[in-house]
Amino acid sequence: MRIKIWFSEWPLFLVLALLLVGGLLNQWSAGGSYYLKRQALFMGVGLMVFAGLSYLDYRRYLTTHWVLGLYLGLVGVLVLMALGGKRWLVLGPVSFQPSEMAKPVLIILLAYLFSQQERPYLSWPLFLGANLLILLPVVLIAVTDLDQAFLVLLVAENVIFLAGLSRRLWVGLLVAGAIVSFLVGPPLWNHLKPYQKARLLAFLQPGKTQKRWSYQTRQALIAVGSGGLWGQGFRRGLSSRLHYLPAKHTDLAFAVWAEEWGFVGSSIVVVLYGLLVFYGLRAAYLARDLQGRFMAFGCSVALFWQVFINLGGVLRILPTASLPLPFLSYGGSSVVVNMIMLGIIASVLRRRFSFL
């Protein structure tokens, strides 16, 4: 039975393997052997976590005590990071970004809460309680990383919408959202840091900010456009080799890939991401319990929004954001957390054959 289960999901593992190989090639080209070796180490750790979680039966272990412990542990670490004004938690030679862990922890928390409800729609108390639980870590993350805080909030709200909202709640949210936007918008703009305002202005007024603020996005577009149909070849991209492209191994990793592999190679990567999200949503659809459905859906939309926001910034469809592209960008925290979410999806997929 186990062999049958794993064999039936070989497309998911093939898509993941192709993205991992692509990420290693991209880091080798963008950063050389140093980044290649470190990324391979991160991926190795991530694969072990992925394999362990895929075998884990979440229905047995994600009990009230475990879920509450994960949430309180996350909040405690985020409080320390906010007080210290730091994004990275350094433990000897190892550094980790705790804000990345907020995505799977909040997804697990919301999935557990919503799986206990008996109504087809969320009640007002449960809706407000869920948003308060989300708001605390989001505010703590926003102290040091506004982009990551926005992503965490977006993913959590997607899970809430899946849980179901009544018509009255929808109307109330629209009215409240309009009022809050009107009241909070101007003060929030004044409290943004200069580089954050620069990103928005570079997106809204690219012609007026050519020399200073839009340099990163313009170089990314040049790199993507110079790739043409088939690309300039592996490790032959001029923007990358001549160091015109900033943050080429992190935020703009897709620009390096597009320049070297062209439209065809870029399309393949986008299709692979689409398949990864598709298999996650498929796991949510096939899940035999609500907890598994919410977790698989939450992990899928988390992967989707990371890809969409990163590619949108590179292609100037959206303002640029400091969010890594899953597996193609350098970063141990990103790789491990994405593997955690894929491990949750794989666990839900495996449990669809179980009637217990």
From TrEMBL:
Q: Which InterPro entries match?
A: FtsW/RodA (IPR001182)
Any Pfam family matching the protein:
FTSW_RODA_SPOVE
| GO BP annotation list | cell division; regulation of cell shape
The transmembrane residues are 39-58, 65-84, 96-114, 121-143, 149-165, 170-189, 261-282, 294-315, 327-349
Record's protein name: Rod shape-determining protein RodA
Record keywords: Nucleotide-binding included? no
Q: How does it sit in the membrane?
A: Multi-pass membrane protein
Q: Which UniProt keywords apply?
A: Cell shape, Membrane, Transmembrane, Transmembrane helix
Q: What's a GO cellular component annotated to this UniProt protein?
A: cell division site
Origin organism is Thermosulfurimonas dismutans
Indicate whether Transmembrane appears among the record's keywords: yes
**Which terms does the record give in the GO molecular function aspect?**
lipid-linked peptidoglycan transporter activity
Q: Where does it live in the cell?
A: Membrane
